[in-house]
Design a protein that fits this description.
About 10% of the residues lie in helices and about 25% in strands. It is built from two helices and 14 strands.
Length: about 250
């Protein structure tokens, strides 16, 4: 099983409608926005997910993203329309070590593996919020040619400068579901460094989503545009695995 599913379409996560520079990057963004209104995809915002609390900081984990699996474009309809959550914490050891947690049928989560340690008072920056402003999400299908260009750059076969002008909307750290995201460290074989296997069934966990730094707070999540958090999911065991990498 591949970590990155190809040629399954990848989708950019759009949490506020913007004027796209080059429609060559996308299949049909207007149609995708219309389709997305039928689903409960959501970016950031406060939450009341039972069990989704940081054991180090004694506060709720950040909710980066909620995906509505009844949307066929997410590729997880076998989960029966459940809402799944990409969770993280930037203010303690969770951000420095591989992080895994499990969803349960009642909607709660339980943590499996996480980095411990005292919470930071000034990292990523002072007065760090409990949650970031929330917004509904549109999933915009990335064109197959644009997706191929990402894979080519990640694999080191071409330089990013060869594609940035043609596909300016997708290069650099972006929020993405499915497919293969642009990797800031250009390391598509990171499974050799990370044990991206389910702690229960021991099978490889396919890529689910990439979360970049930008959000509806002008400071971003970390004030570093060159950081991303990569999420993998074992849909059989309902276990999520996440880690961050930066330039």
């Amino acid at each position: 099983m591949r970590l990155f599913s190809r040629p399954k379409p990848a989708h950019l996560i759009e949490y506020q409608e913007t004027e796209l520079y080059h429609t060559a990057s996308f299949v049909n963004p207007d149609l995708d926005r219309e389709l997305s209104r039928n689903f409960a995809h959501y970016f950031c915002g406060e939450h009341e997910i039972a069990g989704a609390d940081c054991p180090n900081c004694q506060k709720p984990l950040l909710r980066f993203l909620t995906l509505d699996t009844s949307d066929e474009r997410v590729g997880l309809t076998k989960l029966g329309g459940r809402k799944i959550h990409c969770l993280f914490c930037w203010t303690c050891g969770i951000a420095q070590e591989p992080f895994s947690y499990q969803h349960h049928d009642d909607g709660s989560v339980s943590l499996i593996e996480y980095g411990d340690g005292e919470p930071e008072t000034d990292f990523p920056y002072e007065d760090y919020p409990i949650a970031f402003p929330g917004a509904s999400v549109s999933l915009l299908a990335i064109s197959s040619e644009a997706q191929k260009s990402i894979h080519s750059v990640n694999a080191g076969r071409t330089q990013i400068t060869s594609w940035r002008e043609k596909y300016p909307d997708i290069f650099g750290c972006k929020h993405q579901v499915g497919g293969e995201p642009f990797l800031i460290q250009q390391n598509p074989d990171y499974e050799k460094e990370r044990d991206v296997r389910c702690p229960e069934c021991k099978k490889r966990m396919p890529f689910l989503a990439a979360i970049a730094d930008d959000c509806l707070d002008e400071r971003g999540f970390t004030e570093n545009e060159g950081v991303q958090v990569l999420f993998h999911l074992c849909s059989a065991c309902f276990i999520f695995f996440a880690f961050q990498q930066c330039d």
